[in-house]
């Protein structure tokens, strides 16, 4: 869950921010968008390259069908209209990591347009428009570190050149850094559910640039915007926006003018710094890519792609609340990833009480996974195991204390719950009344001061005695039966 950032201090009642986000998502194809080179991350520099991605004369691009299907699937999940015909274009600029001197992208005729994402804002749902989703190839990577005099030397790694991307451009509908954070969180969640990308920000699979301006409240015209680039986490994007909004307001209030520029965010200082001016718009001289035919995603192909569209997070949460009787918060936690949601539903359908399964996943399983620093996929306790343990608690066969101990053993031994339960001899809660009465008598005899306090009117001491009996029975006594027997004995 996100934490709230108060931007009113930065923007004040006098000004309002206008924010738009451009997100690049690397598609999870095995090969590049226009050639058969591998997209594998971490290969030695300049090993996943060929004449096509190196921009050699005469080498021709061939479009990767899977990249088109992944891009279309993502656009559908973002509620976009898929254009039947889109055009690839050459975006011309010169930079060391762009060997051809141009990037193949889409410009005025993109793959998809007019989508939206809903985010929570001021206690309601707000639609953030998506202008377009288009396909393009990635550029290479300039490496400035690792040299004796790095200020003078730069190395180029072209492994990333030609890796398939989609660029998702939002409308300038985002009014606060909090909304930007929520938009990015939900965007990533949706993309992960579709399976078209791993969205790994550390490996550059998801990158975001933010455009931000401020204007007097009520004014229709936009203010001069700045672009914040190369921010490597959603939290830092929110912090960068908070700082930049405050900086722009301060400049305007002091009689200055905002310069249209690209800025970088220093997370250690919590400040943005000017990188280069954008006063002169770069002339990319877009023109249709002559070596690629128009991309046609006809109705038949769209229908085929749509069949692989999964149930998306928001719809899944609503259904799970109705179907399993869990809370909205439960559903939010249990749909954190598609894998977790799938596993929960498998367990919930097999268990007698889905709500108890939800409680055990959140209260017992997730805490242990977090403490171990592992994901649900590496959990020793499967969702089938959670369901089995939930049914044992539901039937009164084991107590909560016994369950905790068994879960601890599962994590210690790296075994699933049913196996550990068998190994431990299928322990059961004790419902032997005479044996429990004997333990109760021993506990009361051993604690005369607490017994005197209870009889003097301190009824909360009942909880103390229950705890002592459970401890003496090594957690195997039935707590409900212990309560009943203690109440009778004490009265």
The protein's oligomeric status is: single chain
N/C terminus separation: 48 Å
- Strand line-up in the sheet with most strands: 2-6-7-10-1-11-12-13-14
Poorly predicted parts: 1-9
Number of DSSP strands? 16
Helix content: 25-40%
Tally of alpha and pi helices = 16
**Tell me, what's the shape?**
elongated
Global Rg: 30 Å
Mean pLDDT: 88
What percent of residues are in strands? Answer: 15-25%
Total number of domains: 3
Describe this structure in words.
It is a single chain. This protein is an alpha+beta fold. It has three domains: 9-303, no CATH class; 313-423, no CATH class; 433-490, Arc Repressor Mutant, subunit A (Orthogonal Bundle). Helices cover 39% and strands 20% of the residues. It has helices at residues 8-11, 65-77, 177-194, 234-253, 299-306, 313-324, 328-334, 338-350, 354-372, 383-394, 400-413, 417-423, 433-446, 448-455, 461-472, 479-490; strands spanning 15-26, 81-82, 85-86, 88-92, 102-106, 112-121, 124-137, 141-143, 155-157, 164-170, 206-216, 226-231, 261-266, 271-277, 287-288, 295-296. It starts with 7 loop residues before the first helix and ends with a helix.
Q: What keyword list fits this structure?
A:
alpha+beta, Arc Repressor Mutant, subunit A, 3 domains, nine-stranded mixed sheet, 16 helices
Summarize it.
Helix content is 39%, strand content 20%. It contains 16 helices and 16 strands. β12, α4 and β13 form a beta-alpha-beta unit.
């Amino acid at each position: 869950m996100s934490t709230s950032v108060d931007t009113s201090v930065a923007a004040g009642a006098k000004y309002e921010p206008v924010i738009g986000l451009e997100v690049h998502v690397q598609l999870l194809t095995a090969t590049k968008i226009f050639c058969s080179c591998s997209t594998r991350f971490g290969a030695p520099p300049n090993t996943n390259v060929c004449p096509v991605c190196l921009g050699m004369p005469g080498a021709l691009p061939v479009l990767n069908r899977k990249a088109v299907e992944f891009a279309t699937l993502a656009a559908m999940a973002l509620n976009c209209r898929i254009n039947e015909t889109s055009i690839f274009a050459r975006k011309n600029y010169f930079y060391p990591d762009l060997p051809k001197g141009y990037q193949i992208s889409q410009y005025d005729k993109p793959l998809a347009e007019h989508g939206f994402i809903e985010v929570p804002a001021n206690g309601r749902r707000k639609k953030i428009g998506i202008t377009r989703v288009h396909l393009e190839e990635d550029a290479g990577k300039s490496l400035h570190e690792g040299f004796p005099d790095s200020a003078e030397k730069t190395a180029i790694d072209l492994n990333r050149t030609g890796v398939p991307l989609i660029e998702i451009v939002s409308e300038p509908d985002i009014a606060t850094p909090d909304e930007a954070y929520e938009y990015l969180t939900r965007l990533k969640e949706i993309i992960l559910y579709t399976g078209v990308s791993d969205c790994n920000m550390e490996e550059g699979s998801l990158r975001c640039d933010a455009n931000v301006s401020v204007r007097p409240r009520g004014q229709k015209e936009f203010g001069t915007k700045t672009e914040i680039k190369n921010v490597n986490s959603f939290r830092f994007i929110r912090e960068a926006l908070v700082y930049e909004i405050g900086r722009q307001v301060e400049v305007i209030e002091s009689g200055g003018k905002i310069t249209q520029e690209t800025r970088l965010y220093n997370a250690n200082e919590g400040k943005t710094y000017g990188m280069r001016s954008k006063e002169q718009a770069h002339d990319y001289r877009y023109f249709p890519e002559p070596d690629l035919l128009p991309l046609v995603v006809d109705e038949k192909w769209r229908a085929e792609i749509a069949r692989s569209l999964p149930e998306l997070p928001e719809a899944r949460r609503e259904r799970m609340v109705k179907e399993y009787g869990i809370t909205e918060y439960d559903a939010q936690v249990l749909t954190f990833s598609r894998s977790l949601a799938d596993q929960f539903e498998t367990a919930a359908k097999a268990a007698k009480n889905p709500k108890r399964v939800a409680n055990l996943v959140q209260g017992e399983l997730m805490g242990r996974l977090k403490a171990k620093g592992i994901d649900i996929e590496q959990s020793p306790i499967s969702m089938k195991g959670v369901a089995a343990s939930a049914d044992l608690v539901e039937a009164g066969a084991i107590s909560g204390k016994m369950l905790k101990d068994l879960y601890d053993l599962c994590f210690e031994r790296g075994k699933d719950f049913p196996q550990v339960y068998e190994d431990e001899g299928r322990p059961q809660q004790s419902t032997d009344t005479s044996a429990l009465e004997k333990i109760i008598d021993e506990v009361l005899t051993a604690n005369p001061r607490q017994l005197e306090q209870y009889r003097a009117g301190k009824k909360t001491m009942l909880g103390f005695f229950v705890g002592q009996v459970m401890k003496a029975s090594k957690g195997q006594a039935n707590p409900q039966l212990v309560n009943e027997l203690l109440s009778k004995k004490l009265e």
